[in-house]
Amino acid sequence: MSLSYSTVLDLIINEPFALGGRLLPLFDLPLRQQPSDPSASFASLIHSIRASGPHGEAAMLTLRTRLIDALRPFFPNPTAFQQQLGRCNAVVSGSFVLAFLLAYGREPLHWTPGDIDVYCTTSQGASMLDFLIRDCHYLPQLLGDAHSRYQLADISHVFRLSNPQLGKTVDVICTDSPSPLAPITHFWGTHLMNFVSATSIVSAYAAPTLLRNAALNPNRELTAEDEVVFKYKCRGFVFTPFRASTLVHSLDPRPCACPHTLRSFADEHTVSVRYEDIGDNADAALHDGPQWKWGGDRCGRGCGASPNDHGAASSLDVDS
Predict the structure, then answer these.
(1) What is the rounded CA–CA span in Å between residue 243 and residue 180?
(2) Mean pLDDT, residues 60-87 taken together
(3) Which of 39, 158, 259, 304 has the fewest Cβ atoms surrounding its Cβ within 10 A?
(4) Has residue 308 been placed in a domain?
(5) Is residue 27 included in any domain, yes or no?
(6) Does 305 map to a domain?
(7) Of 258, 275, 298, 74, which is closest to residue 172 (Cα–Cα)?
(8) pTM beyond cutoff 0.85
(9) Which domain holds residue 201?
(10) Residue 253 has pLDDT above 90, yes or no
(11) Residues 6 or more apart from 242 whose CB is under 8 A from it?
C-alpha cells in the first residue's frame, strides 16, 4: 500500500516522529509492510527500528543486509570494507548512498551507481589506499579531467582507483579538515547531503530527498540546465534554487529547510539511523563535525530568515 503524494506532504508537515532525538516525517510509509519484508522502504525500516523490539531488530538486520549487498559489487568482502571505514573514521557519500536510500522507495530506481566516493582525513588516506590496493585489488588511476568535479573547499587530495575485474571505481577524497564530512557541506545539492559510516546511515534533508526533491547550493552557481543537474533530473529529481520558493522548504516548513539556518549532521533535523550496533561511541565524533549555512535570498516561506539569522557562521561554513 503506497501513500499518495498529497498524503506524503501532509505527513511531512504534520506528523513528524522522534528518532533518537531527531525528527523524521512519516513519508512514504507502506502501512502493511513487515520490517523483514524485502520490499520495505527506507522510511518504513526506520519507523520499525524506532519502534524497537523484535520488529526493530528485524528492520536493522534488513538494513544491514541491504548495505552489505549494495557494497558487494565493489568489494569482495563488504564487511571488511565496513570495518575499514571504522578504523579510518571514514564515510561513503555521493550517488551510491543516494541510490541506497531510494532503492526501495515508491518509485523504481532506473540507475545504478558505477563508483563509490570515500571521504577521509588526509592522515587516514594512506591506510584507506593500502586497504583498497592490497585487500581489494584496486589499481591507482590518473584522474585527468575528472578531478574538476572535486574542486571544492576542504579537499586536499583525490585518488581514483579501479578494479578491472569487477569493472568498478573507487574515489578516495581526502581533507585536511579534522572531519571527513567537511567537503560534503559544500555539495551542490541537498539530495547528496547523505553519508554512510561504519555504523550509521545519515541524511541532512531526508524528507525532500526521499520524495526526489532537491535544492541547489546558491554558492555553486549551478542552474537547472547544467549537465550534472540534468543527470539527476533524468533520474526523477525536481530542483529549485535554495531560497523562499524552494521545494525543500515548501515540503518542510521547519527552519531546518531554510538556507539561512546553521546546520550540522549532529543537529535535531538530521536523520541518523544505526544499522550496526558495535558500541555507543563507535563513530560519534563524525556527527560533531562541520557546520554549514548556504545563504541566498531572504526567506519568505514563513520563518522570515535572513543571512544574519539562525546562528552565527562558523569557520567551516559556506559564505552566505
Answers:
(1) 28
(2) 93
(3) 39
(4) no
(5) no
(6) no
(7) 74
(8) no
(9) 86-292
(10) no
(11) 190, 215, 216, 217, 218, 248, 259, 294, 296
How far apart CA 164 and CA 88 sit, in angstroms, is 25
CA distance 160 to 174: 11
Nearest in space to 207 (alpha carbons), one of 70, 55, 75, 29:
29
* Residues in a beta bridge with 18: 23
What tens digit of pLDDT does each residue of 92-151 get?
999 999 999 998 877 778 888 989 999 999 999 999 999 999 999 999 987 644 455 566
CA distance 140 to 161: 4
Among the listed residues 252, 245, 258, the one whose alpha carbon sits nearest the alpha carbon of residue 303: 258
65 part of a folded domain = no
Cα three-residue angle 273-277-279, rounded to 5 degrees: 110
Return the H-helix or E-strand segment holding 170.
strand 168-175
Q: Residue 248: is its pLDDT beyond 70?
A: no
Place of cell 550517488: 95
Which cell is 224 given?
Answer: 537547472
| 239 strand-pairing partners | 214
Grid coordinates in use for 101? 536510500
Q: Which residues pair with 271 in a beta bridge?
A: 203
Distance CA(134)–CA(121), nearest Å, equals 20
Alpha-carbon torsion 81, 83, 86, 89, what sign?
negative
